[in-house]
Amino acid sequence: MLVVGAGLSGVCVSLQLLKRGCDVTLIDNQINHSSRVAVGMINPLVFRRMTKSWRVDEFMPYLKSFYKNLEKETNSSFFHAVPIRRLFSSEQEREFWLKKEKRDDFSDYMTLVDQSDYDYSAAKNPFGSGRVKESYFVDVDVLYKSASNYIKEKGSIVNEEFDFAKLHNSSYKGVSYDGVIFCQGYLNKDNPFFKDLPIDPTKGQVLTISSEEIPEDVSLNRKCFILPRGNKQFKVGSTYEWHNTTTNITEDAKNIILENLSYITEEKVKVVEQIAGIRPTVKDRRPTLGTHAEHPYYHVFNGLGAKGYMIAPLLSEEFVDYLLKGKELDKEVDIGRFVK
Questions:
Q1: Contact yes or no for 180/2 (Cβ under 8 A)
Q2: Which of 91, 216, 244, 301 has the highest Cβ tally under 10 A?
Q3: What is the pLDDT of residue 340?
Q4: Least confident segment among 10-14, 28-32, 77-81, 245-249
Q5: Quick one: 235 and 295 in the same domain?
């Protein structure tokens, strides 16, 4: 198989194919605008209405096994538990939490609020707060280095720009493949076979800050997230800039993040770094998986969005089972949903 794009999608698909004994060539231009600038947070909840993330009960146990097995295979450490404390933004939000926390279907992800959650004083906490269970983060740099070395060992990685002019049916540059899987993120817009899929570029910017006072044992969340990274440094973000394909950092985005941070803490912070990336997002907030209707050799695995590090492991297994065994895809991710 030829996999185009070595972001999170392409890496996970390549790993799943290798696990099944397939020959894999992964081609990438080494310019990643999404997965490698992402923070790597895995949060099972959607805080706006205190709901569970889509298919979280399936995704969560699988991702833990997937990442831990990859750590073992590559002798690395990139998958880490981190508690999330949601600082309620209103009495209504607190009530949403209190109604859900005692339900059996939420008990795996919510700690029962007690007096300590109202008394929490390491951040602004006017309405109390709730603690999330089963929350993690992936050290993105270590993941990609480890996974890339593994794929190079078991398959092949070609560092170059993909040239559609040299693709002829299932042959690329004279080499035949069983299929071509496009995992190009927002650059899908330049793909002549899948450009009509509604994958929109959504720019996001993230800060790295240093602070002497912000706690390092928890990820705080209100208006933005704060992810501890050790040595008094933290990732803070992020912005959502719709239909924006620029990768430059901006003063406006920095100010927005710092203003959002002020809802959590009044502590003075120093901005150490600012980065920008472009997420591939889909209008219905579901990924795009499937095969081209007229070109059966061409497949797509894209549109993971902001929850990518949670959903990619299991979806990549389901996608490879679809390719190799003919299993049906989840209708919510199948690109057939966009065909009239």
A1: yes
A2: 301
A3: 64
A4: 28-32
A5: no
